[in-house]
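User: Modeling request: complex.
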Amino acid sequence: MGVGGVSKRIILGRKLRSSQLGETLLPKRIALPVFASDALSSVAYAPDEVFIMLSVAGVSAYAYSWKIGLAVAVVMLTVVASYRQNVHAYPSGGGDYEVATVNLGQNAGVTVASALLVDYVLTVAVSVSSGVQNAGSALSFVQGHETEWAVLLVALLAALNLRGVRESGAAFAIPTYGFMLGVLGMAAYAAYRASMGELPDVESAHLHIDPAPGYSGEISQAALIFLLARAFSSGCAALTGVEAISNGVPAFQKPKSKNAATTLLLLGAIAITMLLSIILLAYKMGLKYVDPHDLDRLTLPDGSPLPEGYDQHTVIAQIAQAVFNEFTPGFYFVVAMTGIILVLAANTAFNGFPVLGSILARDGFAPRALGSRGDRLAYSNGILFLAALAMVLIIAFQAEPTRLIQLYIVGVFVSFNLSQLGMIRHWTRHLKTETNPAVRRKMMRSRLINTFGLAMTAAVFVVVLLTKFLAGAWIAILAMVVFFVIMKGIRRHYDRVEEELVVGDEDPIMPTRVHAIVLVSKLHKPTMRALAFAKATRPNLLEAVYVGFDQETTDRLLEEWDERHIDIPLKVLYSPYREIIRPIVQYAVEIRQANPRGVVAVYIPEYVVGRWWEQLLHNQTALRLKGRLLFTPGVMVTSVPYQLRGSEIGKEHADWELERIRPGDVRRGRIGR
Amino acid sequence: MGVGGVSKRIILGRKLRSSQLGETLLPKRIALPVFASDALSSVAYAPDEVFIMLSVAGVSAYAYSWKIGLAVAVVMLTVVASYRQNVHAYPSGGGDYEVATVNLGQNAGVTVASALLVDYVLTVAVSVSSGVQNAGSALSFVQGHETEWAVLLVALLAALNLRGVRESGAAFAIPTYGFMLGVLGMAAYAAYRASMGELPDVESAHLHIDPAPGYSGEISQAALIFLLARAFSSGCAALTGVEAISNGVPAFQKPKSKNAATTLLLLGAIAITMLLSIILLAYKMGLKYVDPHDLDRLTLPDGSPLPEGYDQHTVIAQIAQAVFNEFTPGFYFVVAMTGIILVLAANTAFNGFPVLGSILARDGFAPRALGSRGDRLAYSNGILFLAALAMVLIIAFQAEPTRLIQLYIVGVFVSFNLSQLGMIRHWTRHLKTETNPAVRRKMMRSRLINTFGLAMTAAVFVVVLLTKFLAGAWIAILAMVVFFVIMKGIRRHYDRVEEELVVGDEDPIMPTRVHAIVLVSKLHKPTMRALAFAKATRPNLLEAVYVGFDQETTDRLLEEWDERHIDIPLKVLYSPYREIIRPIVQYAVEIRQANPRGVVAVYIPEYVVGRWWEQLLHNQTALRLKGRLLFTPGVMVTSVPYQLRGSEIGKEHADWELERIRPGDVRRGRIGR
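Assistant: Request completed. Predicted assembly structure:
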């Protein structure tokens, strides 16, 4: 079995606890790229945001850039250390949602789920926007049309996922390792060139940055701290996706938890190395990088404005261009890998969204239809919903990663915090019963790590909230609140229904008699079949019912009825206003009232056609009638289908739909972020 | 009974041939406004189009304006004379569609129907655009935002009709008589002022018109004729709506046909008087009027361009402003009545569209659902469809009546022509059997009139086609072809199905046994009820079927089953891939194959909730399963509903929907144009 088949099975391995799964577990070298694309891809935009924020105070503030990089690295290490504890404690791969629900209760779980839903949307929007921006550095026809390209790309991803693309392990491994190779190779080559004393400058090195209004001249300590805090919280975008491995523990080879923890550490180390390399290189190579809206703050050395149409390339692109100035393929390789891994990260959201939906459905927080495997409709709706929201964001923020990132990080830290808090509770609970001193010591250590992690992520969360709330985080928070309220409402509804449906101790009431009526609109084959079927059920009373508008047609039908010697009485309901549904419902209600312990069985002949537009041409009245009769107690409605010749098309189509969506397709991707 | 109730009943009188209708018939004074709003409203824009066309050759061509008016009047009189024959021959009110179908066959009828559908859309677009343009003459905030206001107005009309407004006779009578009073009063007052020698000039009288490029200096005879032909065919827009009365004959007091014919003549006379008055006044008062796109061809007397922001008011508004320069309320009255009658004309299309749809449905050219009375869904879809198409046209042509009218008249003349041709056939056919010389003479006379009418309308049709095809008529023709093809396709489908369903002479096959299966997902009240109901039908074999995903849940259900001592065997279908539908369908097919002469009855417990969003949370699997089982021969599907407490809301809503759409509401409006 190839790598492709392996990894596909694994990503949904968590759910299929069948015995044959053992042979398909992931070695670390495959698990790393499968779970790391999202986390590593954020390295592509985090440095840009740090430099943009610092540039507000002019180029002098760039001296802080690597310190901020270090601070982000410390947070990341802390988060990695914390999630290593999750991995050991929850090897089932339930993710933050499970940790929060089990340890902190339903509301915390739903809060995490809301944050995750918002984050899926933002992952798509941010990754695609950043990917397009990177593409713009190499492809001039993308420049200036970023929004259109980003929307197009989201549409393409949605279409591919609607068609049901199957990702192979290679699809993860090649770009992820390619991206690592590109960035780390670039860093190594740059280090070599620096050691030779010939590290080149980036293209923007000769430019000058005017500080933003209010930041020129000496700035106050408070303003500086606020600025550094903003730069830091933007840099924390690099943390998104780190927790993914904690959802994938069951996919690892044994010892699962240990291997997962090791891979997590590896991922953290690589991400930190890449992030710090990029920031350090950018700083050393004289990068000047400002908010694309403030391009006029960039000036030429003589103070004159930039030439019309200057396009600011991304940080990675600028570094790659300079480092590989004598080896252009290197530049193209780095930029291409960056773009691909960003799109791959967006695609993971398309995979993860329905998985989260199915788990929420299982727990009653989402429509149950999302939880049934192979439900093409629900799956498609999820993809369209995700794509539509991402497109709205991309259009609203003109595909500018800098703007979108303001919304992004809040959700990530909501789940970080609740997850850490849940873990502390978890250890405390287990410590109450655990007596083995060695195990207790280990648990105490884990709790300490999680506590430290919580302190760190909580502090960062406060910084993020303070610095980003007005800049856009409020939108993300509002969206979370909306998701939260909807999910709680759905759960409340299901709970109420379930309560009402519990079978009491009373014996079920057996209906005493069945009064069957067959609806007749014409005397054709479907009617004959319905009459025959209804008769076969041997009801206590059987009659055919016709709703008559005018005497002429009614008489003709009655004649035909006699001619054919049909031995079932035909009752005519006269409807002067040409209504069909009301007289039938009324008649059913009357029968039932006359015999409250009986059942009315309504047989509706229906013919089945093949094509969707043919469906529109038939059975609309039957459909509405069935809908209406559902509300009438004591009535059961039976469709007696008559398959027309063309109906084979529809059947094949229905079968094909079932065929195409094998259970696995829907459960791809990972839960949680 | 008030006038409102009367007229509402009447408009749909044709269909309700009940005996009590006699007392509610329309006197001529009410019938006139009910049927005339559309025809008279076109007087509001036809003159403008004539002057715009003539202005191409400069102001000197305006000398032809009243001659063109006379030509249009002659055509109108001919059409009126022709339709008086229709009224006598087809007092049932079937309109052009009936005349064409009966006399020329199905294809001609469908062609007329296509033309009518296109015309409904254009009536809305043209009337609303013209109404907004008129409003702009009095309300400065409308100027320059005509498209937005027109779209808004269409949306408003659609919303009102979706809500189900009820028009009263007063709603027709007041604005129609108000409009007549306004225009004819204005003409009378102007005549009085002219007789005193003080007829004022309109505001544009002092302006100069530069001929269009190619028309300056001496123009060729051919170019002049072409220009006059274009002006004439634009002026023929005044004819739209004249035939409306021929659809409403059954609504008149006896003698119906005679009264209708008299009203038709009256309508023609009034329309001609209004049209000629406006054209003559405009000419005498020195109007200068050009295509709003060519405003730069209007110059000040000294040759300098018009001031920036000059807004060209409509012809009626300019005349009213000048005539009532000493009595401003008169101006506002005329403009307001013009705007209102135009909107009223648009509204008649919203009423007529579903009526035409229901007739087409009756004849199998439209989905049959459109033909069932009180079908809110179909009715709403018709309104939305009409509004959407009208909006598209308004936006595409920026709410400019001049542009839209290029599309308008083709459809009208298609039905005129086919209707006249049909009438000639009608008389010829009747003459073959008629022997009474007096009647024969009358028929010969009628046929002569219709022949003359056909000659006239055919000539105008050719002129319209030649002058307008490239200017936009091709769009209307293309749309007609599309409608035609769709309607024929639908009819072909219905014919094929009907043929297939005819009952042959063979005896219906009685199924030998019924194998009933009750689907169980949980052991709750709906399941218990379904089991009880299924048992009550006493099938030959009854079993409950559960689709099991895992051992644990399955075991729990089996235990519960035993505890409750349910005497129906429970069969578990094991589904390792968590599919539900496939195993059930497969099982049903197997049962059927084992006993091809038996029937499989599948009982599905469903619970019924109230609100629409609650519906989304339930029964999705049941719905899909039912859809799939319809394709399986020998299977009938029974829904056993269980009404939850909240379901009363849904029932009330369903009842309210039925209540609200009384048959009358849907059948309002007239058929045909």
